[in-house]
User: Fold these one by one.
Assistant:
Number 1:
Amino acid sequence: MAKRAARFDKDRKNREKRRQKRRALSYEGEPLEEYEEERSRQPMPKWLKRVLLILLACVLFLLIWFNRENLRPDRVISWVQEGLLGLSQGEGYPVSITGDQVASGNFQLMGQDVVAVSDTSISILNSSAKELANRQHSFGTPVLKVEGSTALLYNQGGKGLQIETRSKTLAKETLEENILAAAVSSSNLYAVATETQGYLSKLSVARQGSGGYETFYRYYFSEYYVTDLALNHDGTRAAAIGIAANGGAMQSAVYLFDFQAEQPHAQTEPDFVFEGATLYSVHFLANGRLLVVGDQCASVINPATGEKTDFHYGGRTLVTYGFNAEDGAVLALSASGDGHSCQIVLLDNAGQTSEFATDVSAESVSRSNNMIAVLSNGVIYGYSTAGAPQGEWQVGADAKKILISSPQFAYVLGISELRSADLT
């Protein structure tokens, strides 16, 4: 026991010696533990701060450089104005149409809002029927094109066009030649196809600068009469479709343009030819691909690779179709001439298709995410993408077009008024 007590006392003395030694190994009179804590609280070295500040400045510079067009004072002011307009509340639908009538093609979505062009004016309204814009035009045959937050209105067969946003009119132009087709991009571009002497059509592409819109590219078509145009969101690509007679049969073509290339369209020939077919419209999709809709087939084209995916109708008649950049196209096809019992075909951004049968005659179709809406005799029929019924909503016997801005909400075009429908 005495030995064990002596060993314990020796251990205690050794521990005390180690503590004394640690106190001796201090810095400026502080124990090492306290010194280490103090050193960990020392400020960041100046050279490291400089490096981090330089890196941050480089990142900010790149962000500003790549977004310099969007950060122009006029664009920032417009963005603020449109944001304030979007907060406004209206008195609800229905609202009377300004003018006598609105053609179905002149009733389109601008984001979550709706644009309606009558024979006298262009109106933009939000979901509460607040009128965000109402501006006059004097076009005999007005045609509306919308891309992003920008709308272009042109006089088909005439010389006038105007470019509109929610907050203001960006431009009013009077061209020297009659307009066949036009398109607009939110990236400050518009394209117009006109009649021209010595050729069937001429394409002109203009970019907005400090002095207004200035033409920077032209292309002359010698074989096809242009019927529709499209510009992508970035304003880097364009597409044109045209028709021609070939041996008594109609023939259509697609031309692709890349404004980032030295020669946007190097050859004189079209990129794609559709024998014996008439193409109705061309649209850019959100993924950069191109959607073409015709009387016999619809196609999705990858402009970067030149790949084309066709969906042929198989002898069925295209009754009506709808489109949005995110989801693709909705086609209503009928095996009978009267348009009853339509087959609904979904054509996505990759060119993949799915379809389901209905027992209704489709007058208008629209899609938002997984909700498919079909208008038939004053009733909206809702379906899932697999064809499962989602509900029925009465919207008026005079309804001629529907646009669903979300799976729960639809705009309705009537003969003399605009209405809405709650699809919940």
Note: The radius of gyration is 32 Å.
Number 2:
Amino acid sequence: MMTIVIIDDDISDIEYCKELLGKNFDAFEPPKYFTDPLEGLGYLNEHKPDLLIVDVEMPGLSGLDLLQRLKSPGTEVIFYTAHDKYAIEAYRHFALGFLLKPFNEAEFIAVIKKALDRLAHGKREPRNSKLLMDTLALESKKIAIPTLGCTYFSKIMDIVRLESVDSYAKIHLTDGNIHISSYGIKFFENFLTMPLFFRAHKSHLINLKKINKFFPDGTLVLDTGERIPVARRRRTGLLELFDRQNIGALG
């Protein structure tokens, strides 16, 4: 029998998960559950269960912070949250399950079945967890943008793209602001690295989470509506990256 842990500060959500598990699955032992994420983390690291269902937002320790401290690489993880500000696709890229509250029985069953399939066939890849950790680390940081007038400090996730203009770099932000730095795009590429940023062209460094579409002619369309060319020699690498992260190309 497989082991499962549920961590959520809301006991009613725990009871709902337990009800759906008991009704639809017989592969698990009775779930262990915790409303205190720190207590749950201690149990996880000691017992290393097969499956973890964890809320994203909890007082004291968020689900994402808990994952960073999880010492059980073989544990399959399913996140859920009531806050749609969290990008569901961002977690799916890393072969992690994700549910948006309030979820129904069919959605719950589908995610659990996918987790069971991965556990049964040993499909979980440790590199995916590392990739997620690397991405989270980048997302939590700020970067200094030196300009002629002063130095701006921007959250990395607020950067949509960088554009090379002569020897300068134009940094385009999500709020529409543009900063021009005398430091070239190569300078920023040392800090804005994979798995979050990709050098699509000698003149363009893009935030992969801001991509909306990718066309066969090598054109990227960003969430802002901007169209960015991908150099022919870089297209294969971008498609391989999409495939590794399960992003999928749109056309």
Note: The longest strand covers residues 159-165.
